[in-house]
Write a structure and sequence with these properties.
Rossmann fold; alpha/beta; 351 residues; 6-stranded mixed sheet; elongated; 2 domains
Length: 351
Amino acid sequence: MTFAWPEMLWLLLFAPALVAAYLWALKRQKKVALRYANLGLVKDALGPGQRIRRHVPPLLFLIAMIAAILAIARPTAVVTLPSDQRTTILLMDVSLSMRASDVKPSRIAAAQSAAKAFVQEQPADVRVGIVTFAGTASVVQPPTHNRDDLIAAIDRFELQRHTAIGSGIIVALATLFPDEGIDLESLLFPANMSGSRAKGVPIERSREPEKKPFTPVAAGSNASSAIILLTDGRRTTGPDSLEAAKMAADHGVRIFTVGFGMPGGGVADMDGYSMYMAFDESTLKAIAEATRGEYFHAADGAELAKIYQRLNARFVLERKETEIGALAIGAATILLLAAGLLSVSWFNRVV
């Protein structure tokens, strides 16, 4: 636990002062008390319970004062709270390498199975969208609460040539911020294409998007959106992956990257042929780091399913640093009320 205003903790010095004042009051009370002929009989009549009970209300009052002082210092702690995450984009690699059968029954089938489980376990108020990428990127399902639509979209994946990770990130951002006017055509198909529209442009537009002012925010500061990127390959075409990640960071969107397969490289069977395959682990780590996300590696379908479960739990319940001064104030109020009620009930007086 930490404190936003630690200098206010000096007020805790009043606690021993209060204890000293209470002991002094008890001593003074003894001096002015009436003298009984046999004080021992009075003590026996009161009993040990009565003698201890008289100190309970002052003790509760002291603890309440300490709690109030701690509240003034604005304590913060890392607690587990419901996440603010409300829109998640599944960014899935559908390049031909996902057809490899080194993961049974195939990489794409394992990825689809894990993605379906992730979607089904999301809370009802969380929207999920799906973007796929190969040589280009496309939105196969805009963000929705309808889990049946999402499952159907996952079943419609079609494998294509090449791997354009940067294109996938940019299209995912355009899906998260549809009103921002992100110019997909200029970002995905730069001027060296002579302005011609390439086959597979993910979103058709009859006119240029309206440019809107944009002010970058701190990386990872967008608490309502996230992207989960799954790939088993390296970028072979499209915009630079790290430049696209910087664009996501400027929007405050975290990207959680999942490398599927063999980062160090290995031979995988695809359509009866043996192919050497590896994904770019260093780039995936860099994407996650730049956006304040996290990198994961899944060597098979079972590990991939576990990663999606972990991400699901993270989005539903998230550990974050939270100010808990209100709890301290609440505890202090309850203790003060208890001290007053006990004092009135037992001794017919306030503490």
